[in-house]
């Protein structure tokens, strides 16, 4: 189980052992039906008495070190005159030497403390007159001295926390109220609603509870079964014996000790704004007809529709005639039947239509001559309303290099005008383009397009050089060195939609400069020739003409899939041909060598 306790004040009482574990002996908080966040009720803190704590508490565990994760919403209508303790986590349902606590001051900010002192810094100011102030706490004492964890979040963002605290004990109860540390204050009015406690077990709700509205759905018509007898005042139907808001215990109830007797009840409609269902938990108020002899046992049950798959709780048992909520005087808010998806082995999430067709009930799992009495049955639903949630929105759009990216406006439907909505737009753009063009190309464009990451792009050029020499009979060593400079200019454009375009242009320069001294046996030619030019170098004897014909062809292919990697390939085909003619009146043989042709590309020599 990950969700331990849910308290929405929906049973309309702060009496000990009904929905809350305990409350202060006198001057306890009241229940408000006019100001509430969700459901029908909230806990009101007002009329503070100086140096007198006012509180209610829910104990969610018998002990242990945690981790525990708590959530409660607060609406401050009138701020206190000074720093006031409003929430505490303790090792029992009381405010005696609390282990962790949160304060609210006259500027509306929260602060976090533990036994060793203040932790972190103050929060941002709460919104007064609004319930959209979600306080969440984490406590974990399993690390021991110097390694305990205490953290506090406001609306999902941590404002104070540490993993190096030294707690004297683990916490097992949450206390809400005012003047919890006996502050000498009388000013202040605030409301609490939609409390929840998680641990870290299971696959659901195993960390901070997050956003959630809590509402109680109660029986409203007969379901698939009605085998129990009616006791107390007869309302005329089994479901109406168990539908009261504030449990009336022996006033009216259903009763049975017969093995496999079942009662199932349809429930009232869920709120119109139900969207994501976090948790559905069945609660029950019950006792025994007699404290003597052996006792009957029963389970609570739930199905998503008439005749549907049934899921049942662990056994409920008591051995006296005291009235209990969920078999426990201490853990009154801890349901024994908690669901995160539809009943049975389903992994399908609950929907509003499922909630509206849902049936809840009880079954006698161990029979006895005595009877189990069930006074009240309800289903607590923790849900996120449509249009209002914690949103982290990531939008990915194609952009053109050099342009400033823009993101289309985010449209969120079904916003309730009565709610304060916090929307965080996070634009993720993580496209890095590195283009290495081997013909001395400088490309310094960095584009951001997420979540597509482009690899490094390499361009491979192939160079073909063909030299043909025609010579008269003259023995001359001719060495021709071509200096070829090829510069690629690459332009990359990325439209919002469509294909990415890459154009590459080459500027190629080849220069030949040839001079031959008639007495020399070798000729060194240094070329600087523009593309397409023909240069003739005339020497006195012999005469040599050198011409270069250079052509460069670039081919760029770009493929952009819908998802995946972007690939760009560019190839250069460069051909250089040298023709040397030597003319002499003397019968000589000539030897032409083309030595050490080197083509440098991005720091790599290609010969």
TrEMBL record:
Name listed for the protein in its UniProt record: LPXTG-motif cell wall anchor domain protein
Lineage: Bacteria, Candidatus Gottesmaniibacteriota
């Amino acid at each position: 189980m990950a969700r331990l306790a849910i308290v929405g004040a929906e049973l309309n009482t702060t009496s000990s052992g009904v929905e809350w574990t305990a409350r202060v002996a006198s001057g306890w908080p009241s229940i408000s039906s006019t100001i509430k966040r969700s459901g029908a009720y909230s806990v009101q803190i007002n009329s503070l008495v100086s140096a007198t704590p006012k509180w209610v508490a829910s104990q969610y565990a018998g002990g242990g070190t945690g981790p525990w994760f708590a959530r409660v919403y607060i609406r401050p209508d009138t701020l206190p005159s000074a720093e006031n303790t409003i929430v505490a986590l303790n090792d029992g349902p009381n405010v005696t030497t609390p282990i962790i606590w949160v304060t609210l001051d006259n500027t509306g900010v929260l602060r976090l403390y533990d036994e060793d002192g203040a932790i972190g810094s103050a929060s941002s100011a709460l919104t007064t007159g609004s319930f959209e102030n979600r306080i969440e706490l984490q406590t974990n004492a399993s690390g021991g001295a110097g390694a305990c964890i205490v953290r506090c979040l406001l609306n999902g963002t941590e404002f104070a926390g540490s993993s190096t605290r030294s707690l004297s004990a683990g916490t097992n109860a949450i206390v809400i109220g005012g003047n919890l540390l006996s502050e000498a204050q009388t000013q202040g009015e605030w409301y609490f609603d939609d409390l929840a406690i998680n641990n870290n077990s299971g696959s659901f709700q195993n960390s901070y509870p997050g956003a959630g509205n809590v509402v109680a759905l109660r029986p409203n018509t007969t379901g698939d079964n009605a085998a129990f007898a009616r006791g107390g005042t007869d309302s005329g139907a089994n479901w109406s014996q168990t539908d009261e808001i504030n449990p009336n215990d022996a006033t009216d109830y259903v009763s049975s000790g017969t093995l496999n007797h079942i009662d199932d009840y349809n429930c009232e409609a869920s709120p119109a704004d139900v969207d994501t269902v976090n948790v559905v938990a069945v609660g029950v108020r019950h006792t025994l007809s007699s404290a003597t002899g052996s006792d009957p046992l029963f389970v609570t049950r739930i199905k998503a529709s008439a005749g549907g798959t049934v899921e049942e709780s662990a056994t409920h048992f008591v051995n006296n005639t005291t009235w209990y909520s969920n078999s426990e005087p201490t853990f009154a808010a801890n349901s024994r039947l908690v669901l995160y998806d539809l009943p049975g082995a389903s992994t399908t999430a609950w929907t509003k239509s499922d909630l509206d067709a849902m049936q809840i009930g009880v079954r006698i799992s161990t029979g006895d001559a005595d009877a189990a009495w069930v006074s009240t049955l309800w289903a607590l639903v923790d849900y996120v309303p449509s249009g209002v949630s914690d949103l982290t929105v990531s939008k990915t759009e194609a952009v053109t290099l050099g342009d400033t990216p823009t993101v289309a406006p985010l449209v969120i439907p079904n916003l309730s005008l009565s709610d304060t909505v916090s929307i965080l737009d996070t634009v993720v753009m993580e496209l890095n383009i590195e283009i290495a063009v081997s013909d001395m190309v400088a490309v310094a464009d960095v584009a951001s397009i997420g979540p597509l990451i482009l690899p490094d792009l390499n361009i491979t050029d192939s160079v073909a050089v063909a030299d043909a020499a025609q010579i008269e009979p003259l023995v001359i060593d001719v060495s021709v060195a071509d200096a070829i400079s090829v510069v690629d200019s690459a332009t990359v454009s990325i439209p919002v939609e469509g294909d990415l375009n890459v154009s590459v242009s080459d500027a190629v320069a080849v220069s030949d400069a040839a001079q031959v001294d008639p007495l020399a046996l070798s000729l060194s030619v240094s070329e600087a020739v523009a593309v397409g030019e023909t240069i003739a170098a005339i020497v006195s004897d012999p005469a040599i003409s050198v011409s270069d014909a250079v052509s460069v062809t670039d081919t760029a292919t770009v493929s952009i899939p819908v998802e995946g990697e972007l690939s760009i390939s560019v190839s250069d085909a460069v051909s250089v041909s040298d023709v040397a003619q030597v003319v002499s009146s003397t019968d000589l043989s000539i030897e032409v060598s083309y030595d050490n042709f080197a083509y440098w590309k991005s720091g790599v020599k290609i010969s």
